[in-house]
Write a structure and sequence with these properties.
The protein is an alpha/beta fold. Helix content is 27%, strand content 19%. Strand 2, helix 7 and strand 3 form a beta-alpha-beta unit. This is At1g61320/AtMIF1 LRR domain-containing protein.
């Protein structure tokens, strides 16, 4: 049988039909007179095939018997509506689901399971896939030698797919380096065995208890990164001391969580988002970076400023954010003795009209080694205490803010800069008490440096915010520009035409 006959009888490894071969015939006819084709060694051909994106690899399998054989060992199975060429719009969900299941089924049936290095299955927008079918796909995918496994299931109801932990046992699970599960539950974790190669763990909306997770982590001693998001069955998160290589821990929006107790000795980066809980990072001498977003409480910043110096005494980079209404920043009792980079962001739709921007000086005074300070107002605030209406010069008793100098501070940025009197006072104070200051950026937009780079457009400002931006520009001209030291580079960012 000649090559053309083989191609005509071969099905598309993704769709299961031969629709692509009407295009192949013309190319084959054109090459009949060329003579014998060069035969590549099998290992080189497999290597070339493995470097192709999955759809290109499938097309090659349609056009070449050698590549068709290689397809049975194709290493990177990335299965999603997009990668399978399924159009999500204009079709009913049950039609999309049937098409998705049919294509994935055909791929997995045509694959030997051998040679898989990466398996990634994203079921969105399909939400009614029979668990038996998913089990069948996973059983083929998780074979000895697999390095990366990701299963993201789109679930509309409360009942989650129960991931078969036994598939991770023995030699099959021992080679996995990266494991991501989303939209499923984990039960009978003891069946997973020892995952000696696992370095990256990512659980999103996974139904697992704290005890089950602790057991899982205790058998994954090579872990370097743990990320937990929306895992609402964890009440107490314990990180065992066996995780000597763990350097990154991220815990985001786990609603029932009450305590984090980490004994990982080399943790360097910690991220947390949620309500106030008890946090212990052990000795935490290696923790250098913390991202802390605290909601659901009016004293979120009090908790952060009073507790974090104790939780991580050698902290160098700190990002604080909240979407709660802030009244004032409390006085810091501890010192951030090693802190070099500080970023504070308020997402609140509006500040309390009593909020005093000068209360930020408290945390500056508590950070004697600070080099970079960024203060962001995520949503521009409209204040009634604009310095334009109540000039600073009319005050017969100027406030005494602080006698502390910020000897290492070099870069200061304020985004969402407004004309509030206390904002102007804060800026003047920083200039007067910071002899080392090199660059001062006052951004009257929502953050010019964080705009949508792909479309070169800033975050949109409403009409009130544009009016306030104009007042802020006037306030900068009247009260700040004349006070800027000669050695300081002042940058004033105004709304551009794309912000409108």
């Amino acid at each position: 049988m000649d090559a053309l006959s083989i191609l005509r009888q071969t099905q598309d490894p993704i769709t299961g039909d031969g629709s692509t071969f009407s295009e192949v015939k013309a190319d084959s006819d054109c090459t009949e007179g060329i003579g014998p084709q060069v035969q590549l060694p099998e290992d080189i051909l497999h290597r070339i095939h493995a470097l192709m994106p999955m759809r290109d690899a499938a097309q090659a399998a349609c056009m070449s018997h050698a590549f068709l054989c290689s397809w049975r060992y194709y290493p990177n199975l990335i299965l999603s509506a997009d990668s399978l060429g399924i159009k999500e719009y204009g079709s009913k969900y049950d039609e999309i689901t049937r098409d998705f299941i049919s294509r994935v089924d055909h791929i997995m049936q045509n694959h030997s399971g051998m040679g898989v290095k990466e398996f990634k299955l994203q079921s969105y927008p399909c939400s009614t896939i029979d668990p038996i079918i998913v089990d069948r796909w996973i059983q083929v995918a998780i074979t000895p030698g697999i390095k990366k496994f990701e299963l993201s299931l789109f679930e509309l109801g409360d009942i989650k797919y129960s991931f078969p932990c036994s598939f991770l046992s023995g030699v099959r699970g021992s080679s996995i380096k990266s494991l991501k599960l989303a939209g499923c539950s984990l039960r009978s974790v003891a069946k997973t065995g020892f995952m000696s190669s696992l370095t990256n763990l990512d659980f999103q909306s996974v139904d697992i208890t704290g005890d089950e997770l602790f057991y899982f982590l205790s058998n994954s001693c090579a872990l370097e990164k743990i990320s937990l998001w929306n895992c609402d069955n964890i009440i107490c998160l314990k990180i065992p001391c066996q995780l000597q290589k763990l350097n990154m821990l991220s815990v985001l929006d786990c609603q029932t969580l009450e305590m984090i107790d980490s004994n990982a000795p080399n943790l360097s980066t910690f991220s947390y988002s949620g309500h106030q809980i008890h946090i212990s990072l052990g000795h935490a001498s290696q923790v250098r970076k913390i991202r802390f977003h605290c909601d659901y409480s009016s004293n979120a910043f009090y908790y952060a400023i009073t507790k974090l110096p104790l939780i991580a005494s050698n902290l160098q980079t700190l990002f604080l954010s909240t979407s709660d209404e802030i009244i004032n920043i409390p006085t810091a009792f501890g010192k951030f003795l090693q802190l070099k980079n500080l970023e504070i962001m308020f997402y609140a739709a509006k500040f309390s009209q009593e909020f005093d921007f000068c209360s930020l000086i408290s945390i500056l005074d508590a950070s004697p080694t600070l080099e970079t300070f960024i203060f962001r107002i995520g949503v521009p605030t409209i204040r009634h205490d604009s310095i334009i209406e109540d000039p600073l010069g009319n005050s017969s008793h100027p406030r005494r803010l602080s006698d502390c100098f910020h000897d290492n501070l070099k870069n200061v940025m304020i985004t969402g800069f407004c004309s509030a009197k206390s904002m102007i006072e804060l800026t003047i104070h920083i200039m007067q008490k910071t002899k080392s200051l090199e660059c001062l950026t006052l951004d009257t937009t929502r953050g010019h440096d964080r705009r949508f780079a792909s479309i070169d457009r800033c975050l949109r400002l409403n009409e009130e915010a544009l009016v306030e931006a104009g007042k802020a520009q006037t306030a900068i001209q009247r009260y700040i520009e004349g006070r800027v030291p000669a050695a300081v580079n002042l940058k004033v960012i105004e709304p551009c035409s794309k912000c409108l």
